[in-house]
Protein 1
Amino acid sequence: MQTEPLIAASGLALGYGAGPPVVTDVGFELHPGERLALLGPNGGGKTTILRALLGQLPARAGSLHVGVSCGSVPQTERSRLDYPVSALEVAAMGALSRLPWWKRPGREAREQARRALARVGLEEFGETTFGQLSGGQRQRVLIARALVQDALVLLMDEPFTGLDRPAAERLEVLIADLAAEGHGIVMATHDLEQARRWDSVLCVNRRQIAVGPPAQALDLPVLEATYGGAIVELPGGGGRAVLPAQHHHH
């Protein structure tokens, strides 16, 4: 049974101010329980698409329908870590979008934050200062904040950056569990191998190159267009690497 999409985009073009569009021809649907990888190089338009899904950028062309609340899970590398705020307080900030500007999160929001921290496996870290947590723990606190927001779609910007393998594996399991509960997940990444493990992938490099299940969408011509260079097999089973565009002339 095909459910109503949480997000639907068609012919979407996005940009900033009076400048030219940053990304064009974007069209996709996100359904409950689906994990979508936004794959592309830095500057290719991934973060711009996330901003549009949050309602921060209007469509230049085409249409974008976001039928549910979206919660942002930013890179923890960009968070201020010297600010003396606890994990519980960060999670409770998810309630701010529902409160008048003059009101601070109260007991109900803190209870919701405690439940959200328990959901992401950090129940005992509520009073720990955010900056003292590991990168993986901070990422999970930011997911808890989005859950307090009642976000049905989680928008993640390179969430695995800087994480060691155990932390990355824990985060991937948590994301799979949240998808199984019906959340939609959109993750910006340039990690090709990770994108292959998700339900669908949207390849962008200033325009949409391809969208669909990874096994179909991630062929060699798509990857070369996405990364603007030739894709080469590394010797000794080392996977694939991208040659810069200027090396690609034969």
Note: The first strand starts at residue 7 and ends at 14.
Protein 2
Amino acid sequence: MMKTYTRNEFLKTGALAAAGLTILPGCYGRKPLKDVQIGVIDINGRTGVQFGGLGRTAEISAVEKAARIGFEGVEITFGGPDEEGVLHLARNERQQEYLKEFDAHGIKPAGTHLMVLHENFLKNPDDPLAVQWVEQAIPATRNLGTEVILLPFFFDGAIEERHEQEYVADILRELAPEAEANGVILGLENTLSAEENMFILERVNSPAVKVYYDVGNSTHFGHDIYSEIPFLGNNICQFHIKDNPHYMGQGEIDFERVFRAIDEIGFKGWLNIETVPVSGNIADREQDLRINLEFTRNMIAGM
């Protein structure tokens, strides 16, 4: 059973670790998890729902904030369309602004996020905008020098029925060649089990479509994350890590098992933190992100 920590213990441990004086118990002298980077998402929420992240949805200021906290990258939200029907981040000039900001602060894009798919659903044959947004996101993500586009399927856009999964898989099969040609992966984050996700991936049959695995969401929806991660293996393109509304390590999820599973599948890529302020007060967001970042670093150092 994992030890849990109070807020003060986390703060103290994090400060000592930053000074090179100690790390969490049990982590000393073991081989680090290789080839992973720790990022954070820029978003702050959706009407009626609190998401975790920096609280800077589609705002370039998220880059400076992430760097100041100590993250290696930011997962960037595309934002909505302008009057000409072009997503905010799909504009080349906006991409260049972001690249300059990343360079100035010494961190990287940690993928992109099509949050607009919470409004326009890929499962809806009467709404062509969803496909249009993915088509715009593919070259933009390539231009930003990152690889994974998060395609969310939640709320009214969830694909829990088999006919919805079949329809979306067929749409993704049409989009996949362009993604593959651009060196981009369409990452599916949803409410489904690993087996249901594999049904979609096998129907699409492209290396450009994979699962964006969120350990917090999958736990919430009743899935066994400790068996799903090894089951999906290299079909996972990226991770969201969180245990909302708790600090990581103080809730339901055993992160030692999670990170060991990630290590054992040979994952190389981004682990993006999506934690909410434990107090519920957005004023605590930055400090809570520091706590969860330090916890993640110390856990990874113990793998």
Note: The chain has one domain: 35-301.
Protein 3
Amino acid sequence: MANHDVTTCKIAVLAGGWSDEREVSAQSGAEVARALAEGGFANVDVLDPAAPSFFDELQRGEYDVAFVAMHGRLGEDGAIQGLLEVLHLPYTFSGVYASALAMEKGSAKVMFDRVGIPVPQGRVLDSAEQTEQELDGLVACLGLPLFVKPVGNGSSFGVTRVTERSELADAIKKAASDGSRVLVESEVEGTEITVPVIGNDEPRALPIIEVVTGSDFYDQRVKYEPSELHHVIPARVSEDVYALAQEYAIRAHKVLGCRGCSRSDFIIREDGTPVILETNTIPGMTSASLLPDSARHYGIEFPELCRLFVEMALEGRTS
């Protein structure tokens, strides 16, 4: 596909969907469609997989590439990717396996640990119903504060920072409210950063963003405020730590089997150790989003970035 003019491709931007992140996904899709048009793509449609007419529209459209701008359940977890595989329609970003693995935080942590990336101490709970003795055991083992989050959700939905033992039971029930298993982790103190990575077989790390929240953590309110309020690029860490965090992010991208892009979130401990929190396989694609902000600082404007993602979707395909 190296000599192929990808701007002649007909693109279906998939946005919206069924998850808690439907609204921001729709915003991502609209901004991606505009960027593709600015980049010279003449045939771009935005389709909502939650619409009753979606499947018929996707089949009738004779699209060359699906640009997946969906976040959370059924969009980032391998479900929509499975449908696109069945339809033999090339699509942006990671495949079924990598998407599902990254979304399942407990399994992803196992993979990170396997390749030497430090992870927070934590436990995965199969049930929201925990006895008082089990709750006491969690606190005794992991300490306070704790973060309690759904194993299979994204964008901070269902996440609670627990500072008192009395808050733990309700936090676990909240995290499990969508039927997910629950991850309970020790809080890691330090500087919060995120490391975007782009590429398929030879991924490269983009400039690291230091996330300054003014909040207990990078929650929903902070995530979608103007980026200049919370993004410091490049992150204010030493050269050695900067290089190590980028190395870990590339390592995470590879061990999960990501394609196109990923964005790994870390806390830099006081001793300079980057501790990974999670890897996102479809980061936000809005004006306030982290990966596009980092790419701009690298010299890649948003229309070019979207074109690169289309090229990566077609990379290695002969038809």
Note: Residues 6-92+306-314 form a domain with the Rossmann fold fold (CATH 3.40.50.20).
